[in-house]
Amino acid sequence: MRKSNIEAEDAALLIHGLSGSPLEMQYLAKGLRRAGFATLAPHFKGYGFGERSDPFATGTWQQWRAQVLDYFDELARNYRSVCVSGLCVGAVLALDLAAERPGRVAALSLLATTLAYDGWSIPWYYFLAPLAYHTPLRYRYSYRERHPYGVKNESLRKWIAREMSEKTTSIAGASSLPMTAVYEAKKLIRHVRGAISRVNAPALVIHAKEDDVASLKSAEFVLEKIGSKDVHFVLLHDSYHMVTLDNEKEVVADETIRFFCDRIRKTASAPVAGRTPRDVTNKSSAAA
Is the separation of the CB atoms in 68 and 54 below 8 Å? Predict the structure, then answer.
C-alpha cells in the first residue's frame, strides 16, 4: 500500500458495521482526510454486505479479525501512526485489534459499540435466537431490518426504508442480517469482553442515549473495563444507532478528529532528519 497523499504522515482505519458497507463511514472519512489523515475504509469479506453468493456464508469472526489485522499492519508499515474507528460490531473489532496490537494503535474511536443486542427496537423474539444457533436453522434464517433502521432523522429514515424495500441494501447496511453473522458476532463479543482489559490505546467512546440496537450498557462496560488510562466519553442526545449517518454525524466526526489529532500530537516521535511533522492541530481546527 502506497501513501495516497505525500503529505499524510498519519492514517485512520475505519471499520463499518456488521453486514454493512464502507458507505457508513463515508462522512467521517471525508472529515479525517480534510484533517490530513490518509483513510482506509475497506469492505471486509464475509463480515460486510455482498461479495458472497450464499448470504449465510459469512465466515468466522477469526477470519474477520484476520482481515482487520492485515489492513492495520499494512497501514502501520507505511504511516507514522494509525488510528482506528469502528461502528457497531466494527467497534468490537477495533477493540480486538487494539488488544492484539498493544501499544501500536495511536487512538480508538468506538462508535455505538455493540457488546449486546439490547436496544429498544430489538424484537422480543431475538432472545430466543440462542436456541437456534446450534441447529441448521442458523443457515436459513435472517433478521429483517425494521423501523427505525438505526436512524432518528426522519427524512433519511424514509429514504433508507424505500431503498431497503426496493434493493437488498442501503447506506445503512443490508436489508437483512443472517443469523450466521449474528452467531459469529456473539462469539467475537464474548472474546472481546474477556480481552478488553488488555486494550491500552487512548479511547473515545461515543454512544447515543436512545441507541435502538445496543443500550448504554455496552458503552458503560467499555468505560469500566478497558485497560486504557486515557478514555473520553461523548453521549449523543439526538441520534439512534447509526451515529455516523444520523443527526449528530458532525459531532461524531468533529469529536473523533479532535481526539485523534490530540493523541497523535501528544505521542508523535521526534522529527526525522530532514523532515518536519505536519501541524495536525491546525489542520484539525481548519476541518472542524
Answer: no
C-alpha 152/C-alpha 175 separation (Å) is 17
Angstrom CA distances, 258 to 22, 153, 154, stand at 22, 25, 28
The C-alpha atoms of residue 4 and residue 254 are separated, in whole angstroms, by 23
Residue 288 has pLDDT above 50, yes or no: no
Winning range, highest mean pLDDT, from 39-48, 139-148, 196-205: 196-205
- Among candidates 105, 116, 112, which has minimal Cα distance to 227? 105
Range of the domain at 61: 10-124+182-287
CATH number of the domain where residue 237 is located: 3.40.50.1820
The helix (run of H) or strand (run of E) holding residue 62 is: helix 61-78
Domain count across the chain? 1
Q: At what angle do helices 280-287 and 249-267 cross, to 10 degrees?
A: 170
- Tell me how far apart the alpha carbons of residues 107 and 241 are, in angstroms, rounded to a whole number: 22
CB atoms within 10 A of CB 88: 29
Regarding pTM above 0.85, the answer is no
With beta carbons less than 8 A apart as the criterion, state whether 218 and 207 touch: yes
